[in-house]
Amino acid sequence: MTRSREALLAGALDELAAVGYAAFSMESVAARAGVGRSTLYRHWGDRLQLIADALETLNVQPAPPDRPADETAREHVEDLLRHLADALSRSRVSACLPALVHAAEQDAGVREFLHGYSRRRRQALVDAIAEGTARGEFRPGDPDIGADALSGAVFYRRLMTAHPVRPDDVPVLVDAVLGRR
Amino acid sequence: MTRSREALLAGALDELAAVGYAAFSMESVAARAGVGRSTLYRHWGDRLQLIADALETLNVQPAPPDRPADETAREHVEDLLRHLADALSRSRVSACLPALVHAAEQDAGVREFLHGYSRRRRQALVDAIAEGTARGEFRPGDPDIGADALSGAVFYRRLMTAHPVRPDDVPVLVDAVLGRR
Amino acid sequence: MTRSREALLAGALDELAAVGYAAFSMESVAARAGVGRSTLYRHWGDRLQLIADALETLNVQPAPPDRPADETAREHVEDLLRHLADALSRSRVSACLPALVHAAEQDAGVREFLHGYSRRRRQALVDAIAEGTARGEFRPGDPDIGADALSGAVFYRRLMTAHPVRPDDVPVLVDAVLGRR
Amino acid sequence: MTRSREALLAGALDELAAVGYAAFSMESVAARAGVGRSTLYRHWGDRLQLIADALETLNVQPAPPDRPADETAREHVEDLLRHLADALSRSRVSACLPALVHAAEQDAGVREFLHGYSRRRRQALVDAIAEGTARGEFRPGDPDIGADALSGAVFYRRLMTAHPVRPDDVPVLVDAVLGRR
DNA sequence: CGCTAACCGAGACGGTACGTCCCGTCTTTAC
DNA sequence: GTAAAGACGGGACGTACCGTCTCGGTTAGCG
């Protein structure tokens, strides 16, 4: 709303991406925003409220791009996964993700945010898979399981290995889990 | 080695599991171990050294149980996944995992540990899948991709949702990714 | 200035008098003043800055009492010495003196303070002696030397013996050094 | 006695002279002596015992030099004062003196040592003055007072000013306090 | 136009944890 | 059997943030 509010929310995300949740410092957020410490506390009371609020900022779902009428379900699934892989490689979300995973373990508010974020993405994937399965584009199977395996592979590679999934890897992954073209 | 060393390493893991990496306090670890703060610093110098060392403790791979000679590759894969699912539900590793994921993002030592830990588990899975594929127990496919999808699903459900994979979920998952029985 | 500042300065002098310079503890000063340790460090940064500042407190010279017009130079000299003897027996200055002497050896700031304090007192004495000498109340002689001998006796007895100069001892001392009445 | 004992006593005096009583560190004394910390504690238990013992080392009175038969009492007094002035300018005693003054205020053992040291020196001076007074070399007067004034001037200038008494200053001082030649 | 209210910065305050240094005690090694 | 090495619990150091608070100063809106 007020000018400093936005500067602080942005500063909070920067801080989170830069030093993580553990070393996150209100002092430093205020400095990033070029704002007095007291102003910060006037708006958010404590660290967690600020972080939780800043995360909402990330929550704005970009409207799903108009899908061409003739896009196959497989293409759609691949798009969703490519977008996820991309988000986990480059965006601010990616930088904050490990901090979020950790914070979620400690704080119900953050947990809610993280799970909700994940749920929305996953649901889109489930829908696309279900459509493809119905159309016979994919091997028959539970679309929920498929979504876990596909999303999981992307998150797993980002969080637990040094080699995140790249866009080119996506088709192979879809082939393996949902059935060859 | 010395008595207090072990008490402190154990205390460190407890602390990590209890309050996470962000709120991890040397003060509190020393208290948990019933040991003077200076003793703690005599051994580890700072927070990260202690955590890194404590993690090595988790690193001891339990010898793979003697596999019955007649176990199928599918059974083996399912065992590995059930063990992983179990580890991510109950063990000390699970409690520390979010803290680890976060710490790994900030510290190379922890990152190395986490990736190494993940790599070893994954390799066992890859081998089992490859064997099954060779024997025709599974649908043909790249065992690396299959391992990512299977491991990924388990980690994803633990870290990003409120519903971790339970042992009973494993066969369905294996069916979906590697091919129906 | 701020409330706690004064409480801390007073506490510092108490601490200095009570346990000396060697055992002087910031922790304990803060406790004496009923103030948080961080407040103490916010104002002074470290032990020496605090002590140096606290000493300035002692530096306020009480305005010389209106000397009766008919006071002789000898009476004036005796007054000054009695005042010194008294200060070295009872006052807070006396309690801090040994600590000061030691601290002065290690720290230039304290040294400056101590020497300045001594110089001012001594100068008043030199002036009084010079006046008396000019008036023929005292035996001819260098007033600086006389001041050293008189001041010296008082400090010497305070610092190096168990028997400080008492007010009654002053006239005899003046007789011996400056000439009999 | 044992080799390390002596090294430690010497080291203690060095340390005292170097950093004073306040910053005196057992750690550092042991290091100076090239000896383990535990060896130090085996001999002295704590800081004060060590310091007290080390000071005894300084206590060895050099045998009074054979006074020439024809030396006057004034010459003797001047010799004693010159020796004192010299000791307070150069020797290890001088370096330790401020530390001693301070320690004496806190610790009875050190106080006893310091006062005793002072008493012995002063007595020699009193005797010399008394002799000179008896012989008519000095103005009549109480030799105790004279000794306080003379010793006092020397200590005062050492401890409270930046200008210690130098050997050349001695005759003038004696003239002023005990009577002109 | 001037008053009031909000928002803001600066920073004092009591607190807690950090990592460092030294204390005095003790056990364990090794010469 | 004496000395070294060094682990141990303790406690003060000076630093950095925390979250709370009071204090002036600016700006805006409203009377």
Can you characterise this structure?
The structure is a homotetramer of 181-residue chains. With 181 residues, the first copy, chain A, is mainly alpha-helical. Chain A has two domains: 3-58, Arc Repressor Mutant, subunit A (Orthogonal Bundle), CATH 1.10.10; 73-178, Tetracycline Repressor, domain 2. The first copy, chain A, is 73% helix and 0% strand. Chain A has nine helices and no strands. Chain A has helices at residues 3-19, 26-33, 37-44, 47-58, 73-90, 92-106, 108-134, 143-160, 170-178. In chain A, helix 7 packs across helix 8. Chains A and B meet through helix 6, helix 7, helix 8 and helix 9 of A and helix 6, helix 7, helix 8 and helix 9 of B. Chain B binds a DNA duplex (31 and 31 nucleotides) through helix 2 and helix 3.
